[in-house]
Amino acid sequence: MQTNEVLSFCSRRHALHVTIIRGRNISGRDAWRKPQCYVQLRLPSASSETFRTSAVRNSANPTWRQTFTFYIHTTLKNVMELILFDDDRTVNNQISSLCVDLGGLKMGGREREKIVLDEKKRMLLEVEFFLEKSESHPHPVFTNGVLMARQCWKVQVCVLHLRGLPAEGIHSHAIVLSAPDSYERIASTTKRKGAEPVWDEYFTFHTDSGRDNLLFVTLHDTSHMGLQVDLNLTATDSASPILRLGFCLSDGEKDFLKRRAKIAALAFTKVLNHQTISKSCRVPVVAVLGSGGGVRAMTSFYGSLSGLERMGILDCIAYAFGVSGSNWALATIYQDPCWSTHGLDSAIHELRARLTGGKLNLLTSDWLRHCRDALRDKEARGLRTCLTDLWGFVLEWMLYGQENPARLSEQQEAVRHGQNPYPIYAAVNVKRDVESCKFSEWVEFTPHEVGLPKYGAFIPARNFESEFFMGHMVRQHPEPPLHYLLGLWGSAFAKSLRDLFNDLLKKQNSPDGKQDTEKQEPLVDRDLAQVSLQSKDLTELTGVTVPASSARGIAEEALSIEVSTPERFIKQVLHEALGTRLSVSHVPNFLSGHFLVQNFEQFPDFSPWKDNSCDHHSNQLSPFMKKLHLVDAGLSINLAFPLAQRSQRRAHLILSFDYSWDKPFEALKQAAAYFSEHHVPFPSVDVEADSHGELRECYLFEDQGNASVPLVLHFPLVNQSFRNFTQPGVPRRTKIEQEDGDFKVFVRCSPYSTLDFRYTEREFDRLVKLARYNVLNNAALIHKALGKAWNRAQRKKLG
């Protein structure tokens, strides 16, 4: 945690007394009776507990005068939630809610507020706040300007034995330990019999040193009082945190950039025909961005990178960013640590074999056992499984044809010597009840780290999915396999798993790879057995409400079906429950235990959305969430511009390849709007004035008067001159050549739909050649942009 970006100091807790005095003109949901009101209080920055007043019966003007005390650090963002309820016998009806920012309270002063709940009805709540100065022991705190953490205590509790039970007792007993403000919260011993049972069992609680840490000890399932439990307790400071607080790049990425700059300098010498390059020259940062778009995007990105390779400019590129399908391309390419040296021809040939070959091996007993065992193992470790896991298995077999144990952190070998561009895979963190276009936080996956740049918090890539508290890893899980991340990064398809399996089987059985889907019965009845899903998972993750009894029946039936005859199970699960879009991936929140700093919104590196209400209600932000909800970044912006233009990276030249189905400039315009709101330099995107009729193969966007604005070369996926040329300057002459170029990508009944996962060999070859050609045909413009980027980098260095 300790970096040059982290400030360390000591902070005292002070007592905050909150008195709920009275309500006025309170009306409930039922007009025929007076409400029975009570107020609920939450202050997440001080306590994980929820407090409430007593209920005042049958009164529209209830009086409580009840005081609650919280111990707060004034350096934190303290926002109190007050919720007024009508205590109905059948359901607690919420009347109104409000949040009170306590940052303006003065020490030692009493402030009474009459908070208007409904101006029209003149409904209000009267509350008094009193902040009392305390001389409590100061606690060390650490902050990066947005997040704050305190010392983490590791408390070990040994339950020895119990005394005082009746001698004639024959029941088994267990001790339950509860520490509400710890990460673990609750633990229980095994059950023991006897009048004085002995356990000698150890439990660990990770707690916040800046809170009142209480341990509650109860005897499970008994009414006995006055019993004696012997415990041993030890508390120690946890080891140094693993989570890195700070907005700077990781050490691994910094080291890469130093090595890559030397390689890029030599490459620029060749590209720009310079005799030599002075050591004092600044090498511009060039980034390549690939959009989402399923297998179409993956295949096209291979072609685009192949074009850059044939131009001889791969070594000029520092970064490769992916979204969704482009992430699939990068993940498979980086299996070869020296891919840019070896070339992409072999990798393209392998991908062609995978996407155009038979798929029956996807639906085999071995594959089903592989899925079942992996899901069971993950659930046994306490992690949630969902459709993203299953989708990852489908991608694993589609792209590799076998089990692939590769991990993201292993790609460090591919950048250790600066030999390839640095890969960065994008996802976004969303909220379940807010549209992703209104709330999404960018998450970056690199070979070294996974993190949320918005908060300046990063963990080692090998520890993704492990559980963290206050920056400390409290429970380690194995690094997830790369195929799980493939599913996470590309989880936004409206295509259901049911339709995908139909598609794979129908194309497999068709001589030309295509078949009329309306003439056949669904072919889902194949080999998907023994996948256990809980009712709440099915409901939360798919949006389909499934009765608990039905879910249990499906799971129980799965365990009784032989792998060789799974027809009934796949039909039930996929047809009844999984017939919607692929799901959100719920992962442990590595921000857990951190809090937001007072005035964090004003920190330069924090990037809130102006129209996003969540960013202006701190208790709704990610540090207070139990889980992160990660999805396809294409649900936000279909090109990872926000990651490429972090202030610590700021590329001089961006080559963006957009393989979106429609609106080829939408992601670019969204990025421009994003940067305008966050005051980040970016060129104006005026496509209408720059295009005359049909789309061009490449567009250059720049601000000639401002060297801090990056150059953007934008490549829509369009078939223009490729229709008439096999290579730049080489016309199509034969009928076969002319037919090979005569196609459109984005038309009705196109084989390149986002929902198509298989191609014929001809379809695959056409797409790769088209993407490659569009790069090669604009080599002059690319070289010109590289020259401009070089000159701008030098001017910026001199400036």
From TrEMBL:
Residue span, PLA2c domain: 235-799
Location(s) in or outside the cell: Cytoplasm
InterPro entries: Acyl_Trfase/lysoPLipase, C2_dom, C2_domain_sf, LysoPLipase_cat_dom
UniProt entry keywords in alphabetical sequence: Calcium, Cytoplasm, Hydrolase, Lipid degradation, Lipid metabolism, Metal-binding
Claim: Metal-binding is one of the keywords in the record: yes
GO cellular component: cytosol
GO molecular function, one term: calcium-dependent phospholipase A2 activity
Primary location class: cytoplasm
Superkingdom assignment: Eukaryota
C2 domain residues: 1-116
Single GO BP term: glycerophospholipid catabolic process
EC number: 3.1.1.4
Catalytic activity reported: a 1,2-diacyl-sn-glycero-3-phosphocholine + H2O = a 1-acyl-sn-glycero-3-phosphocholine + a fatty acid + H(+)
UniProt domain comment: The N-terminal C2 domain associates with lipid membranes upon calcium binding.
Protein name listed in UniProt: Phospholipase A2
Record organism: Eptatretus burgeri
